[in-house]
Amino acid sequence: MKILHIVRQYGPVGGMERYVLEVTKAQAELGANVHVLCECCHVQPPENILVHRLGQGIRKPRWLSALLFSRKVTAWINEHPQLNTIIHSHETTGEHHITTFHGPPFARIRQSGWWKRISLRVYANLWLEERELCAPQVQKVSPNSELIAQELLNAYPETQQRLTRPVVPGVEAGELRSERKIPANGGIICFIGKEWKRKGLDRTVAIVEQLRKQRPDCELWVLGPEPENISHLFKNWHGGYRLLGLADSREILPQVDLLLHPARREPFGMVITEALATQVPVIVSDQCGAASEINALQGLVLDEHAATEKWATACNEFLNRATAPPLYKHSWKDVACEYLDIYASIKL
């Protein structure tokens, strides 16, 4: 089977881009003939993947960048006809049989005031998105989480027949958290996320401040943001926190006792399943796509707007648990196989 994946940036430069990289690698290892069409490649491609580079385009404005990339993709495919090839896009292009939808629909803007909807940017993004999802040649639309699937149905009910079950990201097996007794007045809580405002670091700080009334030696470790950008959140703290910047989460997670992720908006949240695959329990908001992957022994999903006290109580309860949560398993090979099953239903 020949597959052409379309992505603007090929490599681990973001969550979506890493998803594409891992899926293509896993599909190639399963014997598929994998090609990638991109603007730029940020990794040394495996020998069993052929990468076609279109050259870096403009980055801003984003709507124009997306439009121009789409035109380059169409021109390339017209010059290089893809016979007997599954074309799998991860961008707002117009030549694919299947698209994976990685984030909330732009069409949510229709719920905003009219004065926010009158612009070339809005018209272009809505046109690009509708074409990506609803063009005649599109046979399958794969959301990356249950949360995104529901939002797609709300925004584009006409996609219902094309919508597949969510194909959630895989997670690599790594070092597991060792079983250890957490001190009754302590414990290590971790927050991970470079886009800290959207992911709720300010809420995390408030929750841990509340929790420290019960567990005064509890620590908060923060990965992702540059320390100088978030130090103001800790101006009233006297120790008990570590700002680790871009430290490797795979090395840090086995050292912590709980992952806290009270995000305002998180289409999936790969760090959540990474924590579960390390046997670190998680407490997350209901705005995280990965919430559907959590069972009662592995963590808790709370209303985004739940009171700080409720979040703190939940954290305390999980820190008091003596047994490790069940190990989460969902490999990139599993994800690749899910897509191969979907491809089998596509008519070329």
List the helices and strands and how they pair.
Layout lengths: L1 E5 L2 E2 L4 H15 L3 E6 L1 E2 L7 E5 L8 H18 L5 E5 L8 E4 L12 H4 L2 H15 L5 E4 L2 H10 L32 E5 L3 H4 L1 H11 L7 E5 L3 H4 L10 E3 L5 H4 L5 E4 L8 H7 L5 E4 L13 E4 L5 H12 L12 H12 L5
Parallel strand pairs: 1-3, 1-6, 2-4, 3-5, 6-7, 7-8, 9-10, 9-12, 10-11, 12-13, 13-14
Helix pairs in contact: 1-12, 2-4, 7-11
Can you tag this structure with a few keywords?
single chain; alpha/beta; Rossmann fold; 6-stranded parallel sheet; 12 helices; 14 strands; 33% helix
Describe the protein's architecture and organization.
InterPro entries: Glyco_trans_4-like_N (IPR028098). The chain has 348 residues and is of the alpha/beta class. The protein folds into two domains: 2-170 and 331-343, Glycogen Phosphorylase B (Rossmann fold, 3-Layer(aba) Sandwich); 188-319, Glycogen Phosphorylase B (Rossmann fold). It contains twelve helices and 14 strands. It has helices spanning 15-29, 62-79, 114-117, 120-134, 146-155, 196-199, 201-211, 227-230, 249-252, 270-276, 308-319, 332-343; strands at 2-6, 9-10, 33-38, 40-41, 49-53, 85-89, 98-101, 140-143, 188-192, 219-223, 241-243, 258-261, 282-285, 299-302. A six-stranded parallel sheet has the order 5-3-1-6-7-8. Strands 11-10-9-12-13-14 form a six-stranded parallel sheet, sandwiched between helices. Strand 10, helix 8 (227-230) and strand 11 form a beta-alpha-beta unit. Helix 1 (15-29) packs across helix 12 (332-343) and helix 7 crosses helix 11 (308-319). The radius of gyration is 21 Å and the shape is globular. The N and C termini lie close together (12 Å). The model has no long low-confidence stretch (mean pLDDT 95).
